[in-house]
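Reminder to self: tokens first, then the designed residues, so the page reads top to bottom the way the pipeline ran.
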């Protein structure tokens, strides 16, 4: 972490905020769930028969359970930085579909080099600052020609909230990498044939405070180095909510999410798994927060 960077994140802060959010995460993480379902759907064209699948940044393990359902003979490992998240994973364990839970940092994984066939990571990379250490670890643990599928957020994410807070010179919303920067990071890590595309999703809310409560419930708190260290007063929150009103359309307040989907291969033979496919064009959808469900953005 660069201490002079106001957007820098400390891993201890990331761990503690998601640890506290374990019990409340799934009820509020509707968009995250929908993005995860789409990322799972993007695995369908590949005829994988993996022996080991790693769910990196597994959270409460809901997607780990789905990976185990899909790859029944595989050893599925749910790895997350926050023990509070993994404690919730027991709710998704089934007698014949059990997966392993490992509490560890994505940048220092306790896994053997070349031991994983598929790494699946839903909306975790944006919490790695920068992502290079995590990407290097992903490549290390992957077998030759192993497959890495991931999603992360791009710089347009929560732009309305960022604008509403932008009056005191402090950081209030995380910095998110551009798709091209993510691609560059993959290349630096040594991945072959990276394929990336972006979609913009607009979730609508009745008021700005409902959005902020959802973000707190999933652990997406402001933990940037340049944040205000004192408690935010009611008057300050009221002014932010008033500034957010400038974005109201058709009776609803939008929250924009720029979702980057990516895939890459650990080696030059990835094209046999479909590496020659072209990225799909980005799209935009608008949905109400209460209407996000399974594959809800379709």
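Designed residues (298 positions):
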């Amino acid at each position: 972490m660069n201490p002079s960077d106001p957007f820098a994140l400390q891993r201890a802060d990331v761990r503690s905020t998601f640890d506290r959010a374990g019990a409340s995460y799934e009820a509020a993480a509707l968009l995250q769930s929908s993005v995860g379902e789409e990322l799972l759907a993007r695995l369908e064209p590949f005829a994988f028969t993996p022996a080991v699948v790693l769910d990196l940044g597994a959270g409460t393990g809901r997607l780990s359970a789905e990976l185990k359902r899909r790859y029944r003979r595989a050893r599925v490992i749910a790895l997350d930085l926050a023990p509070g998240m993994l404690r919730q994973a027991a709710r998704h364990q089934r007698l014949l579909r059990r997966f392993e839970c490992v509490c560890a940092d994505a940048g220092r994984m306790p896994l053997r080099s070349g031991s994983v066939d598929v790494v699946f990571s839903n909306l975790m990379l944006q919490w790695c600052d920068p992502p290079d250490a995590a990407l290097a670890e992903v490549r290390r643990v992957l077998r030759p020609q192993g497959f890495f599928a991931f999603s992360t957020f791009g710089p347009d994410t929560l732009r309305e909230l960022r604008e509403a807070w932008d009056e005191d010179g402090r950081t209030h919303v995380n910095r998110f990498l551009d798709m091209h920067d993510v691609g560059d990071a993959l290349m630096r890590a040594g991945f072959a044939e990276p394929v990336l595309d972006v979609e913009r999703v607009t979730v609508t809310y009745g008021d700005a405070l409902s959005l902020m409560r959802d973000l707190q419930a999933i652990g997406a708190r402001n933990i940037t180095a340049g944040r205000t260290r004192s408690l935010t007063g009611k008057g300050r929150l009221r002014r932010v909510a008033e500034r957010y009103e400038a974005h109201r359309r058709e009776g609803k307040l939008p929250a924009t999410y720029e979702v980057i989907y990516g895939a890459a291969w650990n080696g030059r033979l990835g094209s046999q798994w479909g590496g020659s496919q072209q990225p799909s064009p980005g799209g935009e959808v608008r949905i109400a927060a209460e209407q996000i469900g399974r594959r809800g953005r379709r």
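Residues 269-298 have pLDDT under 50 and may be disordered.
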